[in-house]
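Bit of a strange request maybe. I'm writing a small parser for structure token strings and I need a real example to test against, not something I typed by hand. Could someone generate the tokens for this chain?
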Amino acid sequence: MTRLLVFILCFASFTLSAQNKGKADSLQSVRSDSLIVESRDTVLLTSYATRYDPRKALLYAAVIPGLGQVYNKKYWKIPLVYGGMGWVGYYINAYQKGYTKYKLELYDVLNGGVAPSGLAEAPLRSLIDRYRRERDFMIIIMGGIYLLQIIDAHVDAHLKEFDLNPNLQVRMEPMYEINPMLGRQGGFSIYIKF
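Reply from user aminoacidic:
Good idea to test on real output. This should exercise your parser:
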């Protein structure tokens, strides 16, 4: 068994080439999405989208939120990402403070003391449950914002290669129609030209 494995590994280490030696050397630096015209000059066409790798954008956004948007050169999205995360983080902190405050007051009431807010055991339990539920919901929203910015960076990098037709037009015009079945009708019409 081990001899077979060694034989396979040795055989797999050999490389085979089916091209002429001169052509292979000149084509090594050319990418697979390039066009070569064999005449006096070589024409190298590279796609604009090859500069934006969706996997890199996804990885960057996963490591540091907003870095995928920087990679895609969509700088205007960074304040949205950090603004949303900051807003949700503020509420997570506020609900956590309320949760710990009322939990300590409940602890005092259960030990025979009086809560500083003057609340009994049942309202304190209700407040504790409410603050914990709201805090957990905000944590879920934070995870959603994190995932949304990762998806946005990935999709935006993919859409860099999307070719938009310059003749595409969308316009909205007022519409008035007299229909024998329905009578007079007014509204707006959307016209799409491809």
